[in-house]
Every structure is written in structure tokens, then in C-alpha cells.
Amino acid sequence: MFRTSAVTVAVLAGVFLGGALPAAAAPAPPSIPYSYLAGLAAQAVSPGQAPPGADDWSCRPTSAHPDPVILLHGFVSTSALTWQTLSPLLAGHGYCVFTLDYGVDPVTGVGGLGRIDDSADQLADFIGRVRSATGAARVDLVGHSEGATMPFAYLARHDGVEHAVRRYVSLAALDRGTTQDGLAPLIRAALAVPGVGAPVTEHCGPCSELLAGSQFLVDLDPHGWRYPDIAFTNIVTRDDEIATPYTTGLLDGPNVTNIVVQERCPADHADHLELPSDPVATALVLTALDPDHPATPTCRAVLPVVGPPPALS
């Protein structure tokens, strides 16, 4: 099993930044990078800037793709960091694409740090804005990590809003919480120390809310069958080092499709960070959004963080 640490990310970033890697998924512009490192570069150079293809408020949905797609980044992340692959890929396929940086820390500009309920309220406002601007009756949601779980709080907190969402695609969701490779009890114990838990959760609500067994997730109790009018697709990787066990991102319900990347491509070792840029996973997202025109990815080797290795000459 592959595991990726923050140190590994930093080292790989220094080696590989700047190179767009060859695509191996559905038809798309050749400049699209299938690597998390492209997001690191974008965030370093232009923090806070929307990824290519996103946030054109003059975009009007077509009959082929009538629902705008809203992309939701994960914990301690941004849209620039997460969506350098899917945003231009979806735009190139004719979708109106929008991104929301939610739960943003005002000092660092990094998102996914606010209380999940507060982020869900931000999502509700944003969906209303997208529907108003585009004239669309419904939207599709594509989220990664926290951004794949937070919309359940949106659905739970706002009566009737499930009718505003047609498809809900998750990448490495944390629906049952994360064990953090067995460290969850230690994290929970640390947060219980007087003088520690309150200031941490004030600045990082998900730090406690997304732990396996948290009261927040017990109360939220995410299930696809609660919202029968929404088509759920959950895409996970066995090499996830953050959403552990990886099955935390799989749901039950007749309107739910669960996909493990390695069951489609055993050579694909995309980890938690790489999954939104993974050529197999992104093709699966295209299929989930338009099942009448499925995208067929080419199975090939994929590395954690880096993505498909450069072809050897």
C-alpha cells in the first residue's frame, strides 16, 4: 500500500513542479495536467485564483449539459489547489463550472477550516447564486474529501433543497469519518485536554467533526437513500492515507453507485491528494455526470501525488 506524508509532498513538489503530465482519460485538451503537483504550483503562483474553465458567470448551460457543476475542495485546501484537472476538463466538455472556497481562514486564505454547518450555509447561498445567474433549475455537485461530505449538512439543514441537486459525485469522502490510520483516538484525547480543544475547534471545526465516531457525523448520518431524487456516485481509492478506511466514502442506497478505482485499474495508486486529478477517477466523474455518454479511461500506472509518470523515451 502506498502512503504519502506531508514531507513526501514537499519533496515531490520540488522535483516535479511545473510539468503537465500526459493525459490518459476521456478526450480533453492536451494541456490538462493529471497531477496534484499542478495544483501546488497554481496555489503557489496565484493563490485564490479560480482554476481554468471555472467561474464564468456569463456561462449558460446547454441542452446537452443543462446542470451547472459546482466543485467543492476539501479540508485545508482551495479550489486552485484541487481542481486544476477537473475544472478545465469539464469546461472542455461543455459544462458551466463553478468553484466555491468555503470555510476560509481569513489569515491564510485556506479553506475547509470552518464549522461544517457554517460551510453548508455558504454552499446554500452559492447554489442559489449559481442557479440565479445561469437560469438552471438544478445543479450537480462534485466534492473532494470534506467537500464530498459537507453537502450532506447542506441537504440536512435546508428543507427541500434536495430538489436543487440532480447529481452528487464524491471523491474520497469522509461520510463515516476518518480513523486517521488509527490516530483518531489520540486526536480525540488531545482535543479533550482543557485549554486545547476549544481553541483548536474554533479555528478548525472539521478537526473534530470529521473524526470517526464524532457526534457530528452520528447526528448527520449521511445516506443516499434519504434523498431519492439525487443520483449519488462515490469514487474512492484503496491507497487513501487520509480518508481511512477508504470505505468511509461508500454509501448505501438504491440511488447510489460506489466505485473503487483499483477495481477499474489495479495499476492506479492515486492517493487522497491525487484522486481529483487522477485520469481514471476524472473519467469516472464525467460518466457520473453524463451516464448516457460514458467516458472510458485508459488503465495505466499512476503514482501518489505525482500522477501518471512521464513516459520513458
Q: What proportion of the residues is helical, as a percent range? A: 25-40%
Largest sheet: 6 strands, parallel
* Approximate shape: globular
Can you give the mean pLDDT? 88
- Give the termini distance in whole angstroms: 28 Å
Order of helix and strand elements from N to C terminus: HHEHHEHEHEHHHHEEHH
Number of strands: 6
Strand content: 5-15%
Strand order of the largest sheet: 2-1-3-4-5-6
Question: Unreliable segments (pLDDT under 50, ≥5 consecutive)?
Answer: 1-30
- The radius of gyration over CA amounts to 18 Å
Give me the number of helical elements.
12
Multimeric organization = single chain
Structural class: alpha/beta
Topology overview:
Layout lengths: L5 H11 L19 H10 L23 E4 L6 H4 L3 H7 L4 E4 L15 H19 L4 E6 L1 H12 L7 E7 L12 H8 L5 H7 L2 H4 L5 H6 L10 E6 L19 E5 H4 L14 H11 L24
Parallel strand pairs: 1-2, 1-3, 3-4, 4-5, 5-6
Helix pairs in contact: 5-6
Quick recap of the structure?
This protein is an alpha/beta fold. The protein has helices spanning 6-16, 36-45, 79-82, 86-92, 116-134, 146-157, 184-191, 197-203, 206-209, 215-220, 261-264, 279-289, and strands spanning 69-72, 97-100, 139-144, 165-171, 231-236, 256-260. The longest helix is centred in the middle third of the chain and has 19 residues, at 116-134.
Overview of the molecule:
- This protein is α/β, with parallel strands linked by helices and 313 residues long.
- The protein is 33% helix and 10% strand.
- It is built from twelve helices and six strands.
- It has helices at residues 6-16, 36-45, 79-82, 86-92, 116-134, 146-157, 184-191, 197-203, 206-209, 215-220, 261-264, 279-289, and strands at residues 69-72, 97-100, 139-144, 165-171, 231-236, 256-260.
- The chain starts with 5 loop residues before the first helix and ends in a 24-residue tail after the last helix.
- The relative contact order is 0.16.
